[in-house]
């Protein structure tokens, strides 16, 4: 009898010696609601992880398959190639009218009556009255902004435009080989596209993707840093991984520091499709290229920040 008692005490002490060394416990729930404990070992203290800047989320570093081999997609999205991007922060939403107004008030050279017409067309901020956007549209994405104006805003805010590779990686939200952030199907409940609403919608109206980003497809097309080259993907070695690719410049910093000198006749990349476009044009692999001074009622942008 004593032997059993000693054995029980020893087992009891061993159990409570092991448990304190476990630093993370997660609970899984079975069909009968009985909790099951799984131990994951030591993890990083949450307090040691820096918080993303306000309104942004961290996009983790990683590899993904960029482009599309679907024969229905345009040739400029082919061939699929493997790309690696460093970690970065990205705005959860497109830049809004309210945010852009704050930029204008501190940067009068970009106000519609004063802006250098080398950097915009006559429709820049078309629906604005001076520095005031239309009533009730605080949280709608700003539109009728050029690539130059988008970069100026991003620089003012301590950020930059995403590269095309960063944009697609983030838009996929961690999904692989899917057409949309929601998977291989898209509905009017997933995004603002196909004239289902007939106008832009406030940011955050539709579900977020896997990286907690809103409106990565539809609503407005978003400017990227890259020059648009229809054959860009064909220049990538198929047996190698492209690291942080950028079209039209040797480095991100050089491009940003001299953006006003960028050739007006070299199209820049737009991504994501718009509230006007059919489901075909809001695929995450779909590319577009537009002259950097051009503004339109469905062109906007969001920003990123290096980690």
Task: Name some characteristics of this structure.
5 helices, three-stranded antiparallel beta sheet, four-stranded mixed beta sheet, alpha+beta, disordered N terminus, 12 strands, 2 domains, 307 residues, paralog of FGE (formylglycine-generating enzyme)
The order of strands across the largest sheet is 10-9-7-11
Count of helices?
A: 5
Portion of residues in helices? 10-25%
What's the name of the CATH homologous superfamily of the largest domain?
paralog of FGE (formylglycine-generating enzyme)
List low-pLDDT spans.
1-47
Count the E strands.
12
Task: Give the class from helix and strand content and strand pairing.
Answer: alpha+beta
As for the CATH topology of the largest domain, it is: paralog of FGE (formylglycine-generating enzyme)
Second CATH tier, the architecture of the largest domain: Alpha-Beta Complex
Helices and strands, in order, run as HEEEEEEHHHEEHEEEE
Overall CATH class of the largest domain: Alpha Beta
Mean pLDDT: 87
The profile of the biggest β sheet is: 4 strands, mixed
Shape: globular
Strand content: 15-25%
User: How widely separated are the two ends?
Assistant: 63 Å
- CA-based gyration radius: 24 Å
How many domain units? 2
């Amino acid at each position: 009898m004593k032997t059993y008692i000693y054995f029980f005490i020893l087992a009891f002490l061993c159990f409570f010696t092991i448990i304190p060394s476990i630093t993370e416990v997660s609970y899984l729930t079975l069909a009968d609601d009985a909790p099951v404990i799984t131990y994951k070992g030591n993890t990083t203290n949450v307090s040691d992880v820096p918080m993303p800047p306000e309104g942004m989320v961290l996009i983790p570093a990683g590899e993904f398959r960029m482009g599309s081999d679907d024969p229905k997609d345009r040739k400029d999205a082919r061939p699929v190639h493997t790309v690696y991007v460093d970690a970065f922060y990205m705005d959860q939403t497109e830049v809004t009218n309210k945010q852009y107004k704050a930029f204008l008030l501190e940067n009068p050279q970009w106000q519609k009556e004063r802006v250098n017409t080398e950097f915009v067309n006559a429709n820049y901020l078309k629906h604005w009255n001076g520095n005031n956007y239309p009533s009730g549209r605080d949280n709608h994405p700003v539109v009728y902004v050029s690539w130059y104006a988008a970069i100026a805003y991003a620089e003012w805010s301590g950020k930059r435009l995403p590269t095309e590779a960063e944009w697609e990686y983030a838009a996929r939200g961690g999904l692989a080989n899917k057409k949309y952030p929601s998977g291989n199907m898209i509905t009017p409940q997933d995004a603002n596209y196909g004239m289902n609403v007939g106008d832009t919608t406030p940011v955050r109206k539709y579900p977020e993707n896997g990286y907690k980003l809103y409106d990565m497809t539809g609503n407005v097309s978003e400017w990227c840093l890259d020059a648009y080259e229809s054959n860009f993907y064909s220049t990538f070695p198929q047996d190698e991984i492209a690291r942080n690719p950028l079209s039209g410049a040797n480095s991100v910093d050089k491009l940003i520091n001299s953006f006003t000198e960028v050739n007006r006749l070299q199209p820049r990349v737009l991504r994501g499709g718009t509230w006007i476009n059919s489901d075909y044009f809001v695929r995450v692999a779909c590319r577009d290229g537009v002259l950097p001074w051009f503004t339109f009622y469905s062109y906007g942008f969001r920003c990123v920040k290096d980690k």
